[in-house]
Amino acid sequence: MILEKALQDRNINYEVVAVTDMSDDEHPTVLRSMAIENHWKTYSIPYGVGGRFSVFTEVGFVTAALVGFDIEGFLAGAASMDAACQEEDIFKNPALLSALLKYIASERYGRIIEVFMPYGEALHSLSDWYVQLLSESLGKMSNTCLPYGRTPVAAVGTMDMHAQVQEHQEGRLNKVVQFIKVKDWKHNLVVPNTHSQYERLQALGNVGICDILNIALDANREALSSDNRFNMTITVPTLNSFHLGEIMFMHCWAVYFESIFAGVDAFDQPGVEVYKRLIGPKLARAKDTHNS
Amino acid sequence: MILEKALQDRNINYEVVAVTDMSDDEHPTVLRSMAIENHWKTYSIPYGVGGRFSVFTEVGFVTAALVGFDIEGFLAGAASMDAACQEEDIFKNPALLSALLKYIASERYGRIIEVFMPYGEALHSLSDWYVQLLSESLGKMSNTCLPYGRTPVAAVGTMDMHAQVQEHQEGRLNKVVQFIKVKDWKHNLVVPNTHSQYERLQALGNVGICDILNIALDANREALSSDNRFNMTITVPTLNSFHLGEIMFMHCWAVYFESIFAGVDAFDQPGVEVYKRLIGPKLARAKDTHNS
To answer: Rounded mean pLDDT of chain B?
Structure first.
């Protein structure tokens, strides 16, 4: 491989590991065959687990371990949420309550878009993950042969208050905004009061950045609520691996519950097969053209 | 300022410039007052130009110049598109045609979401820009007192073929997917045919990365079209500053034309005032709490 050669040329030590489906011994994946051939260590993609759920498997853990992420705390959070999401009382079961409210919002009130909007850049990519979770789990044909799905929109505060909130506040009444609020961030840097001669800067002086984030979030949701714009806020005490595990596992359960209401299979993704079938022949033609 | 002190402590040369509204001499902005006080060079945010359009002003050009972006080519592309977008014949006016088709798609066919999906990571942030352009320009109350707007969704190929296309292909029939296709990229790296013993890798060997991108895009749109899923493709000959200027300016004209059809003002953003009014008092309370 090109990368391998570059590392060798520069005498940089490296180790290759493969993360791949290990379930079928008779028809091994390409990556597994290469791993056997080259004596690479392998990690497993559990059979039947879609990419959107694989953050809770070795697929996610390999990367997590490399960056020193607290996997055990993350799993403890997921396990704690797993128990809560099996409560029969809907008011003790956050995923069931969330799924039911969003399903009613969609089917009864036409709120068929969900804006997922944590506040704080550290949670930016959580929105991207949720986009895939909601799209692939629910965006499909239901058992009544009607297309279901709520379209996820990734957002992050405060940035998207400038980019998107105009439309959330005054556009069509077809959205639910899902806020994620971190009550206390680990580091609450305080804005220095260095320019108190300017009234507009003085207003921010000596206020913590995290307090400003939460003030902005509260203002955003109050503004939406004041005009019948549906929104929901999930608040975690602080941001750590435990609470991140809770938030993510709760949403996995929530799409599962909603899939039952909507009559779709949350765990397949047949829609992507349509373009996949078209790619093969096109690639073959491109190869022919290139080689002729 | 903290940053200034850090630079001085390390003997790093620096220059501060301010980009701010210079229109009101009697009530200068905070940044302008600071610039006068500190003898900073200033660049202008033209009065009344919203953030989404400001890429075509000094706001965009300051950053562009710093990274060595070809501003003149960009403006030449915008100017060329500006002429085309004033053609009376709709088939010679790409913005008018695009706006009309999307308006009809929305009002007649319920396609009230627009997925903006260029192929190629280099165009990833173009989607983020378009999200703001469409949200803020059209997501508002119309002159018939009905909320208008089409909700933009940022996407990029091929990544979001995994994350989002399931829902585009099988979810509700309420979307238009806007593809941006680059016919020939400047560098068309060819995939080396190093593992031809594996059939699935051999299929990609000796094919250019750009060809693979465009094959994936074509497969995606054909798959959508095969099931009455609305989509449109804009193709540029290559990606350079001229064509980028064309694409972006065309979409500015398009939201303007659509604003006329829909009866909204494309150039204001009254919806963001709602949360802004709520932030001030909350900040004041936070300051009181902090200081008491």
So the answer is: 94
How far is B142 from B259, CA to CA, in rounded Å? Answer: 9
**Confidence band of B290 (pLDDT split at 50, 70, 90):** low
The CATH number covering residue B81 comes to 3.40.50.10490
Specify the residue for token string 């053609």: B87
Give the C-alpha separation, A143 to A268, whole Å: 14
Residue B245 lies in a domain: yes
Cα dihedral A182, A185, A188, A191, rounded to 10, equals -30
What would the pLDDT profile of A179-238 be if each residue is shown by its tens digit?
999 999 988 899 988 888 888 888 888 999 999 999 999 999 999 999 999 999 999 999
Q: Which residues neighbour B83 within 8 Å (Cβ) at sequence distance 6 or greater? A: none
> Going by DSSP bridges, is the β-strand pair B230-236/A151-154 parallel, antiparallel, or unpaired?
unpaired
Instruction: Identify residue B202 by its one-letter amino acid code.
Output: Q
Give domain status of residue B136, yes or no: yes
Domain span at B161: 51-262
For tokens 């008491």, name the residue.
B292
Q: Please check whether residue B121 lies inside any domain of the structure.
A: yes
**Which member of B2, B166, B192 has the closest CB to residue A140?**
B166
Specify the DSSP class assigned to residue B157: B
Contact B162 A51 (CB under 8 A): yes
Domain assignment present for residue A62? The answer is no
Option in B2, B166, B283 nearest A136 (CB): B166
pLDDT of amino acid A202: 87
Q: Is B136 a catalytic residue?
A: yes
Q: How many domains does chain A have?
A: 1
Average pLDDT, chain A: 94
Question: Quick check: helix, strand or coil at residue B118?
Answer: strand
- Report A:203-242 residues touching B (Cβ under 8 A): 203-204, 206-208, 211-212, 215-216, 218-220, 222-223, 226-227
What is the interface pTM, i.e. ipTM, of the complex? 0.94
Q: Three-state secondary structure along A53-100?
A: HHHHCHHHHHHHHHCCCCHHHHHHHHHHHHHHCCCCCHHHCHHHHHHH
| pLDDT score at B195 | 83
Return the bridge partners of A154, or none: A116
How confident is residue A291, by pLDDT bands cut at 50, 70 and 90?
low
B263 touches chain A (CB under 8 A): no
Residues A91-124: tens digit of each pLDDT: 999 999 999 999 999 999 999 999 999 999 999 9
